[in-house]
Amino acid sequence: MTNKKKKNTKFLPTISCARSLDKADPLAHFRSKYHIPKINGKTCIYLCGNSLGLQPKSTKKHIRQELLDWKELGVEGHFHGKFPWFSYHHFVNKEAAKIVGAKPSEVVIMNSLTVNLHLMMVSFYRPTSKSYKILIEEHAFPSDKYAVASQAEHHGFKAKDAIVEIKARKGEVTLRTEDIIDKIKELGSELALVMIGGVNYYTGQFFDLEAITKAGHRAGAKVGFDLAHAAGNVPLKLHKWGVDFAVWCSYKYLNSGPGGTSGVFVNEKHGNNTKLHRFAGWWGNDEKSRFQMPDKFLAQKGAAGWQISNAQILPMAAHKAALELFAEAGMANLRKKSLLLTAFLEFLIEDINREAGEERYKILTPSEPASRGCQISIVAHRSGKETFNSLTERGIIADWREPDVIRVAPVPMYNSFMDVFAFAAILRQTNS
Ligand SMILES: *Cc1c(COP(=O)(O)O)cnc(C)c1O
Asked: How far is Cα 80 from Cα 304, in angstroms, rounded to an integer?
């Protein structure tokens, strides 16, 4: 798969190739389990699951169940509902743990993403006058940049001293693992925390999280990842890699609805330490004594000990519905399809360039399959926004980033090879 030429020999830029790939796809039937939006009354080609995943048809049933229990049981639903609200996170953490490669006790579903990132930094960014720097990637998602900067400032440091951005080499777009590792070594004992987006939202680059974790630990730093664009997209082994913490949202690849709930991973080596500094609230208290309202907080073991407020049942019910479909499809099968689907997209874009005899669409995303998920980011050199608008007019929902980047994410759960083909066919006709 590493040889770029060899990789795509199985593809042809034809509709019959797309059709036969769909025919051979063992996950093709999952598409019918999702609502696909319409544009002007016509089913659209949705390639924006990296921004907001589609709604499973089963979501309604799961939310209705909670509305029903609330309607019929009132407060009794905490213990006597079909899925008692008192311990609702137990109905979602096991499947979520499989997706990120963790033990169920290392995962809790709660709050929203940036909030959880802050809560994790409360515990894992404990700077001293000598060790206070945070390493983050260039083009990190703005919310993450604001979060790390405000944490540094909260501890009395100047963000411009404390935050170190790893940049791509001149003339390159993505980061090299060796450069990240060298930067970690260079910062050495000054480095308190490495906090990187597991898959960069802009370029789609999937970083070598294991190598980064090892390097961070060698420098004596904590290592945490924002997996907003990684969870449900790429294979993750957080426990095995020894990552300290991670956070992710549920509304991108995990299809759990706008503003949906978020996931947190706390490595058990920290989770079992109930004395670890944290912001406490009653829901993180030991479940046995939680409703006895003890005066003093007694953290429960595991990631669940970081819960603060009582669980947001409706978004969590939506998450439960979405996770069932991941359990049914299996992450390994999804990844297998994803590799093929994304390679097909890449092949078609390269074919457009080949036909034009010039690089009409520059691909920013790494060509090495192990270094990316399903998203391909392209630069539309000539008239980016016009190209994007004409895609939208023609029934394609993708994603636009200023100044000239189009992000396209064929999601293996519900996108087809025909989706990718139709997108490329329209791209071929525009901007020419
Ligand atoms: C989507 C995304 C966010 C959004 O944060 P919310 O708190 O869910 O609004 C933050 N960081 C990254 C890396 C993202 O991709």
From this structure: 21
Pocket residue to mutate for ligand 1, from 139, 141, 262, most atoms within 8 A of Cβ: 141
Contact 361, 382 (CB under 8 A): no
**Cα-flanking dihedrals φ and ψ of residue 188, to 5°?**
50, -130
Kind plus residue range of the DSSP H or E element containing 363 = strand 361-363
User: Is the entire prediction scored with pTM above 0.85?
Assistant: yes
The pair of three-digit structure tokens given for residue 272, joined into one six-digit string: 């079992």
Cα–Cα dist 230/212, whole Å: 15
For the segment(s) 15-33+331-429, the CATH number from 3.90.1150.10, 3.40.50.1000, 1.10.300.10, 3.30.40.230 is: 3.90.1150.10
In this predicted model, what pLDDT tens digit does every residue of 51-106 receive, in sequence order? Answer: 999 999 999 999 999 999 999 999 999 999 999 999 999 999 999 999 999 999 99
| Residue 163 contacts residue 136 (beta carbons within 8 Å) | yes
The pLDDT tens digits for 8-61 are: 568 999 999 999 999 999 999 999 999 999 988 999 999 999 999 999 999 999
Nearby residues of 284 by Cβ (< 8 Å), 6 or more positions away: 278, 297, 299, 300, 304, 305, 306, 307, 308
- Name the helix (H) or strand (E) containing 380: strand 376-380
- Substitution candidate for ligand 1 out of 110, 113, 199 with most atoms within 8 A of CB: 113
Atom of ligand 1 nearest to the CA of 115: 7
Contact partners, residue 282, CB within 8 Å, separation at least 6? 290, 293, 297, 308, 309, 310
Give the pairing of strands 55-56 and 34-35.
Answer: antiparallel
Q: Residues lining ligand 1, CB < 6 A?
A: 112-114, 141, 143-144, 197, 201, 226, 228-229, 249
The CATH T-level fold of domain 61-328 is Aspartate Aminotransferase; domain 2 (3.40.640)
Q: In whole angstroms, what is the distance from residue 421 CA to residue 349 CA?
A: 10
| Residue of 115, 143, 256 with the most ligand 1 atoms within 8 Å of its CB, for mutation | 143
Task: Provide Rg for the chain, Cα atoms.
Answer: 22
Which residue's CA lies nearest to atom 14 of ligand 1? 228
Residues in a beta bridge with 240: none
Tell me how far the alpha carbon of residue 70 lies from the centroid of ligand 1, in angstroms.
30
Query: Domain limits of the chain?
Result: 15-33+331-429, 61-328
